[in-house]
Structure formats: C-alpha cells, structure tokens
C-alpha cells in the first residue's frame, strides 16, 4: 500500500497557491504539501475577472470578503457587457442574475415571449433583471432580501498577482511549504513510470507521492514529461494571441466587465480599484502583433500604464489531465479564452474534483478515468458556450466574422440552438457551469428569437399577464434608488479592515 502523504505542486500563481490552500484546508494534516516555484518565472496574470462560484471557494477557505476586496484591489462584477457582437453598435448583457421570477416547470422568458407576441410587450428581457438594472445605474450593495427575486449574485474583478500573493500568505499560515527553485529534471520510477521527485537547478531534490502540475502553458510534468497530447480547438476558436496592458483607473468604477468585439477578435476592459485591466484577444491570421498592439492602444479609455504584454496560446485541452500520479491544474491542463471569465473557475473546479477523487492508497485507473471524464465534459460545455458568441453573428464588416458564422460547430451546440429557436426551451446539461439564464441571455443577445413559447404561459389572461409583468418590473426597480454607487459601496465596505 502506497499511502499518499507527500504532495508536490510545481508552479505558483493563482493555480498553484489556490490548489495548495484548498487541499491543505480540506484534506488537512493527513498530507504534507510542498510548492515549488521560482521568482524568476513570471505568471500570465491577466485573468482578473471571475464568476460567482469563487465566492463559495472563499467561504470554504474562511476568507473575509472585505479583507479580500481590500488586499486584491477588487471590485464587484455583476455581468459582462457584450458590445458589437451581433452587429456593430449594439450591446447586451450576460448577467449573473436571472430575469423575472422563477416559475415551476416553465421559465419566466416564456411568459415574456407570449407578452411580446400577443400583447405588444416593449420592455426587453433585461428590464426584469436586477443585476442589469444595477449595472446601468452603476450601483451595488449586498441585499439581504427574503424574496429570491431580489437576489443580486456577484463575483469580482481583482489583481491576479495580488490574489496569488494573498493565497500564498493564507496557505503558508496553514503550513504549506514553499521551495524556491526551477525544475531541471523529473525523476521517474523505472518500474511503474510514476514521478517520484523533481530535481531543481541547484541540485536539490523534492520528493513526493503525488504531483500537481501548475506550471502554466509549459506543462512541465503533464506534457513535457508525459506527452499526453493536446486536443486542439482552434478550428472553432481561432483566436490564438492576446496583448494586455493596464491603464489608469476610470473616474467611475463600473460593476461589470466589457467585452468589445473588433474586426478579428475582442477587447476586455476590467475595472479595478487602482487601475483598469485591458487586453485584446485576436487571431494572428488577421492582425500582426503590432497591429493588435496599436488597436488596443487606440481603444483605451484611460491613459496607458506600463508596457504591453504579448501572449500566445492554443485553445483546447490536454487529452488526459490526470496521468499516472500527476494532475494538471490551470493553464497546464488546457486553455479557453477569457471571454466568459472561466479561467479561475476551471482552477477551482479542478481542485474540487481532485478533492472528491483524491487518491488514498496509490493510484486507481477507475479514479483517474473518472477525473478525466468529468474534466472533458466540463471543458466541452464551456467550449460550446464560448463558440455560441462567435457563431451566431450578423456582422458583415470582416472576413473573420463571416468565417465564424459559416463554420461547422459541435452537434451539441447546434441542438441547443435549434431547440431554443423552435420552442424557446433550454435545459441545463448535468454539471454545466452555465445556467439556463446564461444561455438565454447570450442567445437572445446574439439575435436568436424563439418562434414559440411553452403552453404554461397561456394559463393566465392577457390582462393578468401584463399585470404580472408590470409588478415584476416594479419589484426589480424598487431597490435601485436606495442602493449606493459601486464606488461608495467599496469605500465603505473596506473601511473597517
């Protein structure tokens, strides 16, 4: 019996330190965790936007939200605003909320669709979404409402480097050991092929029973050593470059991320307390590195700070994210562009999956296969959601958008689109990160209009339907006047820490 006692994490950053913190917190004293990283190796550090599940992770770790916001220069994120994605000059929101009120067996949007078709309803679906209304008003506060219709789900924008430092401090308090050094060689058991240790440049050996590869795009253990292969998705998501650049903070801090489509890619704007995060994700088939840099600089809304950071990537996933006694977490496991802010979530979900399937007395083929099966499903579901934004477009201003519209896409996505277009129906796949409300907002925002609605929406008269719609609008609007601005909330919330 080879009981797993020594866990070695290769690589720091958000992936490494979040893995160390969660494993140590949840599994505790039965394992010894050592993290190997080098100050000489930088991290990508542009993933500054998150989605609501990060709040659950912070709660598990026992992190005080106000302290976290202050330490990481964080702001609140209620949504992503997509600009120019369907056509130039048009925008829509993908919020973390849901429109209207939850209904048994029938989503609210079916009632809204009937009101549009039969009663001349002029209000958009987002007029029934509190997250949207707060975004437009630039307001936020934590609402302790008994009625779930007034829930205001949120995530954060933060400085990724500051977040990694915050997690490191937390993990080291839990007795995670940090070792400075660059991995030069991997030591493998000649009998079973498992890794038994890594040799550092200074000659030190770090031995372990189980290894977690958080070495970023390099994939030192999972790819360079084991060569597990890579499933390339650039035929569906051809953007393969990014350029990032910080700029001065905006006068008013928006509680949402902006995703602004250009002729061959898109630009992010992420508001932090001390600066703005900016970047351009693009296809190298259409823009040179210099053209991309110039385009980003020309579209900053505040003065640039520092030099541009250029990043190359290939969208896809490792064919095996757990192989022998190595699990890849973070960029070493695969890459999906940051359009829906899923990078840090994929780290969190990988750690959660690993905790559920953590080996006890050595490796198990069934255990490893289950981890890889769940990882593949998760990556493919997120992939489909990202493809949706590109595939359903009506832009006629560039070859890039025409190609995206005409490409063949996964059958799983085509089925979802056809089902919604024909009937307005949406069903969440098992464990899909994105709820029905997310698919709904992006499909409607990209111009997919259902031709029908669920018959349950006919259960009330037209007068009753219109009265219900007005009541819901009024309920959603009512808190807005009382809420502080986003900036006022941040200043007050972090004042005591």
TrEMBL record:
<dbReference type="InterPro" id="IPR006905">
    <property type="entry name" value="Flavin_halogenase"/>
</dbReference>
<feature type="binding site">
    <location>
        <position position="77"/>
    </location>
    <ligand>
        <name>7-chloro-L-tryptophan</name>
    </ligand>
</feature>
<feature type="binding site">
    <location>
        <position position="331"/>
    </location>
    <ligand>
        <name>FAD</name>
    </ligand>
</feature>
<dbReference type="InterPro" id="IPR050816">
    <property type="entry name" value="Flavin-dep_Halogenase_NPB"/>
</dbReference>
<keyword id="KW-0547">Nucleotide-binding</keyword>
<feature type="binding site">
    <location>
        <begin position="12"/>
        <end position="15"/>
    </location>
    <ligand>
        <name>FAD</name>
    </ligand>
</feature>
<dbReference type="InterPro" id="IPR036188">
    <property type="entry name" value="FAD/NAD-bd_sf"/>
</dbReference>
<dbReference type="GO" id="GO:0004497">
    <property type="term" value="F:monooxygenase activity"/>
</dbReference>
<dbReference type="InterPro" id="IPR033856">
    <property type="entry name" value="Trp_halogen"/>
</dbReference>
<protein>
    <submittedName>
        <fullName>Tryptophan halogenase</fullName>
    </submittedName>
</protein>
<dbReference type="Pfam" id="PF04820">
    <property type="entry name" value="Trp_halogenase"/>
</dbReference>
<keyword id="KW-0285">Flavoprotein</keyword>
<feature type="active site">
    <location>
        <position position="77"/>
    </location>
</feature>
<feature type="binding site">
    <location>
        <position position="340"/>
    </location>
    <ligand>
        <name>L-tryptophan</name>
    </ligand>
</feature>
<dbReference type="GO" id="GO:0000166">
    <property type="term" value="F:nucleotide binding"/>
</dbReference>
<keyword id="KW-0274">FAD</keyword>
<feature type="binding site">
    <location>
        <position position="344"/>
    </location>
    <ligand>
        <name>FAD</name>
    </ligand>
</feature>
<feature type="binding site">
    <location>
        <position position="183"/>
    </location>
    <ligand>
        <name>FAD</name>
    </ligand>
</feature>
């Amino acid at each position: 019996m080879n009981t797993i006692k020594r866990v070695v994490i290769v690589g720091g950053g958000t992936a490494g330190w979040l893995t160390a913190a969660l494993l140590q917190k949840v599994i505790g004293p039965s394992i010894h965790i050592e993290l190997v990283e080098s100050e000489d190796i930088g991290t990508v550090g542009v993933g500054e936007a998150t989605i609501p599940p990060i709040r659950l992770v912070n709660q598990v770790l026992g992190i005080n939200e106000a302290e976290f916001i202050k330490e990481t220069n964080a702001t609140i994120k209620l949504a992503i605003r997509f600009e120019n994605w369907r056509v130039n000059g048009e925008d829509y929101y993908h919020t973390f909320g849901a429109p209207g009120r939850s209904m048994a067996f029938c989503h609210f949007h079916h009632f809204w669709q009937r009101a549009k078709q039969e009663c001349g309803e002029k209000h958009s679906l987002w007029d029934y979404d509190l997250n949207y209304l707060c975004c437009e008003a630039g307001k936020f506060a934590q609402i302790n409402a008994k009625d779930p219709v007034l829930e205001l789900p949120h995530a954060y924008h933060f400085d990724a480097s500051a977040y990694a430092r915050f997690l490191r401090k937390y993990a080291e308090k839990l007795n995670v050991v940090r070792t400075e050094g660059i991995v030069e060689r991997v030591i493998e058991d000649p009998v079973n092929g498992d890794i038994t240790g890594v040799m550092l440049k200074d000659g030190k050996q770090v031995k372990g029973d189980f290894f977690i590869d958080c070495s970023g795009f390099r994939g030192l253990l999972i790819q360079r050593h084991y060569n597990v292969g890579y499933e390339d998705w650039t035929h569906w998501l051809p953007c393969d470059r990014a350029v990032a650049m910080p700029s001065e903070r905006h006068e008013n801090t928006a509680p949402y991320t902006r995703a602004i489509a250009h002729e061959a890619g898109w630009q992010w704007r992420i508001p932090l307390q001390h600066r703005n995060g900016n970047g351009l994700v693009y296809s190298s088939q259409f823009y040179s590195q210099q053209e991309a840099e110039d385009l980003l600089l020309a579209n900053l809304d505040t003065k640039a700070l520092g030099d541009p950071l250029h990043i190359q990537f290939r969208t896809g996933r490792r064919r095996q994210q757990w192989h022998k006694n190595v699990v890849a977490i973070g960029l070493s496991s695969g890459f999906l562009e940051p359009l829906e802010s899923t990078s840090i979530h994929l780290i969190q979900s990988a750690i959660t999956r690993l905790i559920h399937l953590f080996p006890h007395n050595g490796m198990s083929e069934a255990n490893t296969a289950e981890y890889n099966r769940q990882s593949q499903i998760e990556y493919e579901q997120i992939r489909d959601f990202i493809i949706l934004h590109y595939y359903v477009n009506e832009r006629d201003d560039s070859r890039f958008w025409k190609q995206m519209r005409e490409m063949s896409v996964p059958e799983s996505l085509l089925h979802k689109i056809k089902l919604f277009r024909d009937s307005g129906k949406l069903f969440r796949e098992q464990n899909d990160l994105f709820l029905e409300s997310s698919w709904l907002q992006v499909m409607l925002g990209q111009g997919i209009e259902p031709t029908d609605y669920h018959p349950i929406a006919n259960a009330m008269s037209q007068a009753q339907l219109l009265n219900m719609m007005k009541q819901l609008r009024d309920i959603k609007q009512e808190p807005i006047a009382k809420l502080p601005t986003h900036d006022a909330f941040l200043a007050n919330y972090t004042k005591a820490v």
